[in-house]
Request: fold
Amino acid sequence: MDNKTEITSLGEFGLINHLTKDNKISHPETIKAIGDDAAVIDAGDKYMLVSTDLLLEGIHFDLSYCPLKHLGYKSIIVNLSDIYAMNGQPKQVTVSIGLSNRFSLEAIEELYKGIYLACKQYNVDLVGGDTSSSRQGLIISVTAIGEVKKEKITYRSGAKPNDLLVVSGDLGGSFMGLQILEREKSVFTENPKVQPDLGGNDYVLERQLKPEARKDVIEQLELLQIKPTSMIDISDGLASETIHLCQQSECGASIYDEKIPIDPTTYNLARDFELDPSVIALNGGEDYELLFTIAQSDYDKIKGSPFFTIIGHITDKSLGINLIAKNGTSHELTAQGWDAFLRKQKGL
Ligand code: ADP
Ligand code: MG
Reply:
């Protein structure tokens, strides 16, 4: 016990792997334990899905610009997104909170207004939780429970070479929303008389402060009679999630830079901030879009759909995971995804 290893040397995923590599499963009902967006449990004629997320003040949110109602809404959304990523439907949530004495009843009521609104919008029931005091700041932990027909379950691990790599919506907006909020916060900190300039950026601000989970995408897939071969939700960034999907599927991938969907607002803002829009779309987190693969034979079902963009294809593992630039050059994709430990190191 004398050795002391810095946790930052492992990173978030290295730490999870280290702690869970000898995890033993003893129940036949435990179909999938760690390593996907949700755990999968045999519930008779269906699978039950369970996913949990922890949100900490100062790490995942900043109350100086995140309204509590939005935070409540977002804390539910981020969990529902993981259930949709299994091609499932969320049914229940539990919500646990830790509160410092800084928070009034009215403040926590605001948080719960957002929680109830998300529950209503997505038709999920709040069924429990836990409440505690906290030494510092606000802590929110949500667990989502859902279900999926056995034949519809979609893991991260089913992608095969030549499958098409598809993403819903557009990417990078949430990150640019955060940049605007951080910029206005620092202007305000330096000169409290200056009012924040948030005008014209509603789209990216909403992506950051009040994201949605892609329930509609799951419904669309059902309508088009498409069962993805693999799926993951984009919480950390396209690059990081593509790497997870390829690792679990034991394959490689080629992503075409020019195909990555970026909203014009996001694109122009990235330029204003002197950032590369592609880098933002690849590595900015919290978009909560779905990344999935489909068999080539399903191409006709998806082409022309406003919901989806084909951004590349799956390759043999030996070819690695590559980003093909507009000029045709190929670079190995590396993840600079959002990692709480890294962010902390950067002092964010
Ligand atoms: P997501 O980004 O989809 O929420 P994570 O990257 O947080 O997924 O987690 C990846 C996997 O590791 C999940 O299966 C999750 O349940 C599991 N996991 C994360 N932290 C722990 C932990 N401390 N102990 C056990 N399993 C964990
Ligand atoms: Mg996920």
In short: The longest strand covers residues 46-56. Residues 173-190 form the longest helix (18 residues). DSSP finds eleven helices and 13 strands in the chain. Residues 16, 19-20, 34-37, 53, 82, 235 surround adenosine-5'-diphosphate (ligand 1) (CB under 6 Å).
